[in-house]
Amino acid sequence: MPFNDKTAPADVPSSADHDRLEALAADLRAANYTVDGVAALLGESAYAAFNRDQPLPARLALRGRSGDPLGTLVRLWLLADPVPAADVETALPSVGADGLRRMGLAARTADGMLASCDLRPYGWERNEDGTGGAELWVASDLAAHQRPGVLRRDHVLGIGHASLTLAQTTIRRHARLALDLGTGCGIQTFHLLHHADRVVATDLSDRALAFTRFNLLLNAEVLGLDRADLSARVDLRQGSLLEPVAGEQFDLVVSNPPFVITPRTENETAEDRFTYRDAGMAGDDLVAGLIRGIPAVLAPGGHAQLLGNWEVRGGQSSQERPSSWLADDVDAWIIQREQLGPEQYAETWLQDASENRDPDLFEAAYGAYLADFASRGVAGIGFGMVWLRRPPAGKAVTLRRFEEITYPVEQPLGPHLAAAVERADWLSGHDLAAAHLLVADDVTEERHQRPGAEHPGVILLRKGAGLRRTNLLSSELAGFVSACDGELTAGQIAGALAALLDREDPDFRQGLLDDAANLVRDGFLLPATA
């Protein structure tokens, strides 16, 4: 169902007055209410604490700075503290306290002005070629550390770890039509608008879509939007999962869906769920359904990236369930970033909605989580990133991979994932034996040996960028890598090593080439012509 101002609920910021939105953006910019501006105001340690949802150091840093416009905005929207109306008038001279009230961004109280929602700076740096950067503001519901009690069930989540992970992981290439499935407050759509001609953004929650519409119109100039004709580039639709786009095809689909595994209760309704994280399905059925269903809405050559949880049941490997959901004709790469036990998982998500603030509720919900997992024999819950692609017309599947990478990786990761996909495609279409290979610039070699030993016992190849992989090499493979300077073909290097080591059997040469193919796949070696 299409979504617009007329279908927006009353308890969200209003985007109806375009002139006031433009004035607010100008006031925020003039006050230096930006990511860098707030970081400089609070100082490094207080800003870091604030990003851990610990506001006290920021409050202490702002003591004695009353009347400062930037400090006023930080107190109002980031700390959710009451501020004098006169200070708001100074900080936002074009909009004023009454304008904020009319927009639903703050309310008058006996103590002054109090935030009705969170409104914070967000942005990303420009690319090396000077393109792609942005400074924005994002409105969402107040978070657990900004308000008392348990979160409302229709809470609209702001900028969080998961949304940032997806934004940094997404492969950024030009797309004619992109889909933001489960848009929330619109973060993924902001990024998509920098490399997609049109974006369809969907959500089951009317409150989420209203926040997204407000955020898009507030940031219209930066995002290249016409406030009077938002639908020219963005189509907001209300509906569940893939239902609003059935029968359509997209070049790119991104989704940070409500994947949290939640125990189901008898006679529950949608109003009983935290809709930002819980789709009302049992176990990991949501992620299973998306992995199975998303390829149907991908155009030939189109790809999808999403986050999700999956259950690891007793006797199964981490990859068994997510891998079983994949169709045979779909490229797929699944990276599990962490795995939690049932107790850790329950604690994480009960604290997420502040349900731990009510002892009786916490105990009952904790028990329900454990009983639910036990009913299916769940030993752990995996979290990770899923990349899917519908192969281009006439092309076969070239990439099927599941791996666990739990250590820190380089961010943004998207460019490195794109390069890895390109290498997999290259390997599928070329004879490696005829290729000239080079060692990637970020690769180093480590050798370890016992004192007095003639030869190293361990040879490691490390990548410093991207997924920061480490590969254990045999001495023969280390010799192969050292010879990859682009002069000889891979087949010639393998043949020379076979002759040098008196290993003329074909299996030795082919084994070296197979190992070299894995090093190309992981980015240690690169085709000299790529």
Features:
alpha/beta; 22% strand; Outer Surface Protein A, domain 3; 19 helices; three-stranded antiparallel sheet; single chain; eight-stranded mixed sheet; 530 residues
Verbal overview:
The chain is an alpha/beta fold and 530 residues long. It has a domain at 414-527: Outer Surface Protein A, domain 3, CATH 3.90.930. 35% of the residues lie in helices and 22% in strands. It contains 19 helices and 18 strands. It has an 8-stranded mixed sheet, sandwiched between helices. The chain has a 3-stranded antiparallel sheet with strand order 17-13-18. Strand 15 and strand 16 (470-473) form a beta hairpin. Helix 5 packs across helix 6.
Overview in brief:
This protein has 530 residues and is an alpha/beta fold. 35% of the residues lie in helices and 22% in strands. The strands form 5 sheets. It has an 8-stranded mixed sheet, sandwiched between helices.
DSSP, total strands? 18
Q: Enter the CATH topology name of the domain at 414-527.
A: Outer Surface Protein A, domain 3
First-residue to last-residue Cα separation: 45 Å
The low-pLDDT segments are none
Number of helices: 19
Mind telling me which CATH architecture of the domain at 414-527 this is? Alpha-Beta Complex
- Report the average pLDDT across residues: 94
The amount of helix comes to 25-40%
- Radius of gyration from the CA trace? 26 Å
Major β-sheet strand ordering:
7-6-5-8-9-11-10-12
- Coarse structural class: alpha/beta
From the spread of the alpha carbons, the general shape counts as globular
What proportion of the residues form beta strands (DSSP E)? 15-25%
The description of the largest β-sheet is: 8 strands, mixed
Task: Give the CATH level 1 class of the domain at 414-527.
Answer: Alpha Beta
